[in-house]
Structure formats: C-alpha cells, structure tokens
Design brief:
5 helices, globular
Length: 113
C-alpha cells in the first residue's frame, strides 16, 4: 500500500512548519546562505521525508563541531539533515563535489545574505 495523499499533505505541512521555525533560528547563528534540497524542495514528499539543508557560515569550528552547535541550538522537531560549510569549503566544492552540485541544481536558496 502506497503513501496516501492525505498523509503526504500532512507530512509536507509538518515539514514546512518546522522549516519556517528553523530558518530564522539558523539566520541568528550568522549564516551567509541556506539551501533547501531533497524531497521537500522538489515537492516529492513521502513518509520518510525530512528537511535537507546546506548552510554556509563563516566559522573556525571543525565540521563536526558545527553540526553539534546547530543541532543542539535548533533542537529540531522532525528529521533534519544539516550540512554546514565555510564559504571557502563551499566555493571549493560547488563545481567539483557531486553532493553540493546536486543541492545547487535541484534545491533552492531560501536565504542569502
């Protein structure tokens, strides 16, 4: 049995509500860019859909420390995948890293400073 339309709409509403809560909080952390990608961005919601974000932030913290900071501060209410890169990392990867290329090509920038 497939994922019912009503359930997909409810999942989408829940994800969008959480995204609307998270974005202002992420901006407060001093980010330069937020890219939404994945099923929420492409409007292909299913029961395992989550919020997928690439975030660009000037920081000296190591990659895993950045993730800890974001998850501990945001305390998401739904499944969220956040990838936090420095501007230098992001610019160095955007033409050669397939993950970043996918996020840029299939996703959408929802905040840019």
């Amino acid at each position: 049995m497939g994922f019912k339309i009503g359930l997909a709409e409810k999942r989408k509403e829940r994800l969008e509500r959480e995204l609307n809560r998270l974005v202002p909080e992420i901006i407060r952390l001093g980010v330069e860019k937020i890219i939404l990608f994945g099923s929420l961005s492409s409007n292909e919601i299913h029961k395992a859909s989550d919020i997928d974000l690439v975030v660009v932030q000037k920081t000296k913290k190591r990659f895993l420390e950045r993730l800890d900071e974001f998850y501990n501060y945001l305390k998401p209410n739904v499944a969220v995948d956040i990838f936090v890169y420095t501007p230098e990392e992001f610019n160095g990867m955007k033409d050669r890293n397939s993950f970043i290329k996918y996020a840029l090509n299939k996703g959408r920038i929802i905040y840019e400073k």
